[in-house]
Structures are given as structure tokens and as C-alpha cells.
Specification:
Layout lengths: L4 E7 L2 E6 L10 H16 L5 E6 L10 H10 L4 H12 L4 E5 L2 E3 L1 H4 L6 E5 L3 E3 L13 H9 L1 H10 L3 E2 H6 L5 E3 L4 H13 L3 H13 L2 H19 L2 H12 L1
Parallel strand pairs: 2-3, 3-4, 4-6, 5-7, 6-9
Antiparallel strand pairs: 1-2, 7-8
Length: 249
């Protein structure tokens, strides 16, 4: 597994999956996505694992996609296939996933929360969906799921303006179950993952399946449609200019 993602058995049937590029605020490059896919796939196949706990190293969840990596992909005409593969892995996982957020959760760092069963964040955590400002388009199924949990007007505000928002707003928008004191999100997330892991596993898997059954096909179709537009936007003059401006800062 890539060193940019760490997977370790925590305790009591919980595996902790940690995005581990603290020097880049855990920005996700292609190796990171591959590591996340491998970790989720391994947890799904391991009978001793009952729940996954997803977090980031160094007091930060993830600053989103690595812009250097995306700029390189745009220059070579490559699409974000491995990122889409990750979205399929997290959105179709049968075992429960709990997210523990500190610091930044930007772009896919926010949209992946829509696929986690439970999520907690430190009070000072900062969220952002900066797709439109970067000349891109929504991803992660967010154009379908965010209006469902946040309402149409709030989803439009968060996705169209792309401005940062705080943990309280994220909770109000349905992205979080709880806001906790800074530095305690991992502990709070582990407590929830441990509680899930203690449940009868077949009953829990059935409950998760039933909760997602009504939207599963729509989520898969939305992820695929968003991916096509996102790949096109990566090569657009607007996105190339936005990436160049970002990399100069």
C-alpha cells in the first residue's frame, strides 16, 4: 500500500484508514486514491473488520485533490479515473464508514463525507467545495446527494459560490453528525466506529443496504455523469487558467 495512505487495525473490529501526506495537507494524488481503494477493498474482504474509520494525518482531513497532479493530468489529457474508482469504492462499501475530520476538508474531502455513514468534526474544521471557482464542476455525486441532505438552496450556495464554511454549517447541511472540541474528532469517531463494530454484522450490513437502496442507482449514474463533465472541465481554458493561478500562490 502507498505510504500516502496508512491502514491499521485500531481495536474491536475497527480499521483506521489515514490519509498521510501531512506536508501537503493530505492532498490526494493518484497514489493516494489507489491507496484508499486498496484499504477499503481490503477492509471489505477482511472478516475481522466490522467498521472503517477514515481520517487524516497531522491534524488535517484532506485539502482535496492535489492541484499539481490534476494540472499534470490536464496537460496530458488524462481523466481522473482513479478518483472515480475511489468514489465507486466508498459509495458501494457494504461495511460502515465513519469519518473523523480535523483541519481542512476541501473538495472531495467534503464530498466523500456524503458517502460515509457517520461523520464528526472538530469545531474549527473548515470545509469548501471550490469546483466552480476552479473552473471545474461538482464531483462525488454531490450534485445529487447534497440537495437531498442540505436542501436545494443551501446546496446551490455551497456548490455555486464555492466559499469556505465552518463545521456548524456542515452539520446543519447534513454532512456531519456531530461537532466536537478540536483535537477530539478521532476519539469521537473511533467511539462511533467501535459502537457500529459491536453490532450484529449481517443486520448492520442489511440496514446500510436498505438505507442506500433507494438512491444507489441514482448515485452511480450521477458519479458517472459528473465524471464526464469533470474530465472535460479539466482540459478547459478556465480550469487551466485557475490551476496556473493557484500554483503561483
Amino acid at each position: 500500500m502507498s505510504e500516502s495512505v496508512l491502514s491499521q487495525a485500531a481495536a474491536d473490529g475497527v480499521v483506521q484508514i489515514t490519509m498521510n501526506r501531512p506536508e501537503r495537507k493530505n492532498a490526494l494524488d493518484r497514489a493516494s486514491y489507489a491507496g484508499l481503494i486498496e484499504a477499503i477493498t481490503a477492509a471489505e474482504a477482511d472478516g475481522s473488520v466490522r467498521a472503517m474509520l477514515l481520517t487524516g494525518a497531522g491534524g488535517c482531513f484532506t485539502s482535496g485533490n492535489d492541484i499539481k497532479d490534476f494540472a499534470a493530468a490536464a496537460a496530458t489529457g488524462e481523466g481522473p479515473k482513479v478518483a472515480i474508482d475511489f468514489l465507486h469504492a466508498i459509495s458501494t462499501a457494504k461495511k460502515p464508514i465513519v469519518a473523523a475530520v480535523e483541519g481542512f476538508a476541501v473538495g472531495i474531502g467534503t464530498t466523500m463525507l456524503l458517502h460515509c455513514d457517520l461523520a464528526v468534526a472538530g469545531r474549527s474544521a473548515s470545509f469548501r467545495l471550490p469546483f466552480a471557482p476552479l473552473g471545474l464542476s461538482p464531483e462525488g455525486g454531490s450534485s445529487y446527494l447534497l440537495p437531498l441532505v442540505a436542501g436545494a438552496k443551501k446546496a446551490a450556495e455551497l456548490l455555486m459560490l464555492g466559499e469556505p464554511f465552518d463545521a456548524a454549517t456542515a452539520a446543519e447541511a447534513g454532512l456531519l453528525n456531530a461537532v466536537v472540541e478540536d483535537g477530539t474528532a478521532l476519539e469521537a469517531g473511533f467511539a462511533r466506529a467501535k459502537a457500529l463494530a459491536a453490532m450484529p454484522p449481517e443486520s448492520l450490513a442489511l440496514t446500510k443496504m436498505l438505507l442506500k437502496r433507494g438512491s444507489a442507482a441514482a448515485v452511480a449514474e450521477t458519479i458517472a455523469t459528473e465524471a464526464r463533465h469533470f474530465a472535460e472541465r479539466l482540459r478547459s481554458p478556465e480550469a487551466i487558467a485557475a490551476f496556473a493561478a493557484f500554483l503561483k500562490t
